[in-house]
Amino acid sequence: MTLKIAFLSSEAPVAQTARATLIGRYGDTAPEQADVIVALGGDGFMLRTLHATQELPAPVYGMNRGTIGFLMNEYSESDLMERLHAAEKTEINPLSMRASDRSGKVHRALAINEVSILRAGPQAAKLRITVDGRLRLAELSCDGALLATPAGSTAYNYSAHGPILPIGSDVLALTAIAAFRPRRWRGALLPKTAHVRFDVLEANKRPVVADADSFQVDDVEWVEVRSEPTVSHCMLFDPGHGLEERLISEQFN
């Protein structure tokens, strides 16, 4: 069966060229009418595509025309239709963020990889962390902290020395970024159902920003994060190279 494909690409010249070549070979369909959406770019573009198409029924198959491409399949022009038919599905839920700035305005965003709380000035941030309404850490002095999904656990979370989480696990990673006090606190593993709240201490003196997949809120006073089970992103991967396999392989590199 011939699939109706929507080709989307980043602004990178190599991605634009690939899109033109593939459209010439397979045609192009509007995302709203497509059976499959093919994203051409890097991981950043894949995240933007997933966010932009989350209301559409078509799954997203990425081909790497960027740099790292952890969320992407290898690029090839000749056998795309066969690869799409054989592709394996992976469904992931994003995080939901609510963040209040110092003016009292509440901002909302979804994050597929992680929600990060980062210092915005020369002094360390001071955060109070509450999980499911229970105070867990009265004061964390740090460059920041983040809550990561399994899909995002190899990104910023891993660079901050957080654990890699299996894609099927109902777990979130709470990871400190350059913790100063408590110096040896490296974070925690939390159930996927956990509601995590970060309160910014001394917000006037120690400004903090919140970031959800590059959606940034400045001068935050508190941030609440939880998994969003009502939103599901469907991604396609070549057999044997799915997200679960990549997360396992990454731990042995």
From TrEMBL:
<dbReference type="GO" id="GO:0046872">
    <property type="term" value="F:metal ion binding"/>
</dbReference>
<feature type="binding site">
    <location>
        <position position="151"/>
    </location>
    <ligand>
        <name>NAD(+)</name>
    </ligand>
</feature>
<dbReference type="InterPro" id="IPR002504">
    <property type="entry name" value="NADK"/>
</dbReference>
<keyword id="KW-0808">Transferase</keyword>
<dbReference type="GO" id="GO:0005524">
    <property type="term" value="F:ATP binding"/>
</dbReference>
<protein>
    <recommendedName>
        <fullName>NAD kinase</fullName>
        <ecNumber>2.7.1.23</ecNumber>
    </recommendedName>
</protein>
<dbReference type="GO" id="GO:0019674">
    <property type="term" value="P:NAD+ metabolic process"/>
</dbReference>
<dbReference type="InterPro" id="IPR017437">
    <property type="entry name" value="ATP-NAD_kinase_PpnK-typ_C"/>
</dbReference>
<feature type="binding site">
    <location>
        <position position="143"/>
    </location>
    <ligand>
        <name>NAD(+)</name>
    </ligand>
</feature>
<comment type="similarity">
    <text>Belongs to the NAD kinase family.</text>
</comment>
<keyword id="KW-0963">Cytoplasm</keyword>
<keyword id="KW-0418">Kinase</keyword>
<keyword id="KW-0547">Nucleotide-binding</keyword>
<comment type="function">
    <text>Involved in the regulation of the intracellular balance of NAD and NADP, and is a key enzyme in the biosynthesis of NADP. Catalyzes specifically the phosphorylation on 2'-hydroxyl of the adenosine moiety of NAD to yield NADP.</text>
</comment>
<dbReference type="GO" id="GO:0006741">
    <property type="term" value="P:NADP+ biosynthetic process"/>
</dbReference>
<feature type="active site" description="Proton acceptor">
    <location>
        <position position="43"/>
    </location>
</feature>
<dbReference type="InterPro" id="IPR017438">
    <property type="entry name" value="ATP-NAD_kinase_N"/>
</dbReference>
<dbReference type="Pfam" id="PF20143">
    <property type="entry name" value="NAD_kinase_C"/>
</dbReference>
<keyword id="KW-0067">ATP-binding</keyword>
<dbReference type="GO" id="GO:0051287">
    <property type="term" value="F:NAD binding"/>
</dbReference>
<dbReference type="Pfam" id="PF01513">
    <property type="entry name" value="NAD_kinase"/>
</dbReference>
<feature type="binding site">
    <location>
        <begin position="113"/>
        <end position="114"/>
    </location>
    <ligand>
        <name>NAD(+)</name>
    </ligand>
</feature>
<dbReference type="GO" id="GO:0003951">
    <property type="term" value="F:NAD+ kinase activity"/>
</dbReference>
<feature type="binding site">
    <location>
        <position position="178"/>
    </location>
    <ligand>
        <name>NAD(+)</name>
    </ligand>
</feature>
<dbReference type="InterPro" id="IPR016064">
    <property type="entry name" value="NAD/diacylglycerol_kinase_sf"/>
</dbReference>
<keyword id="KW-0520">NAD</keyword>
<feature type="binding site">
    <location>
        <begin position="154"/>
        <end position="159"/>
    </location>
    <ligand>
        <name>NAD(+)</name>
    </ligand>
</feature>
<keyword id="KW-0521">NADP</keyword>
<feature type="binding site">
    <location>
        <begin position="43"/>
        <end position="44"/>
    </location>
    <ligand>
        <name>NAD(+)</name>
    </ligand>
</feature>
<dbReference type="GO" id="GO:0005737">
    <property type="term" value="C:cytoplasm"/>
</dbReference>
<feature type="binding site">
    <location>
        <position position="48"/>
    </location>
    <ligand>
        <name>NAD(+)</name>
    </ligand>
</feature>
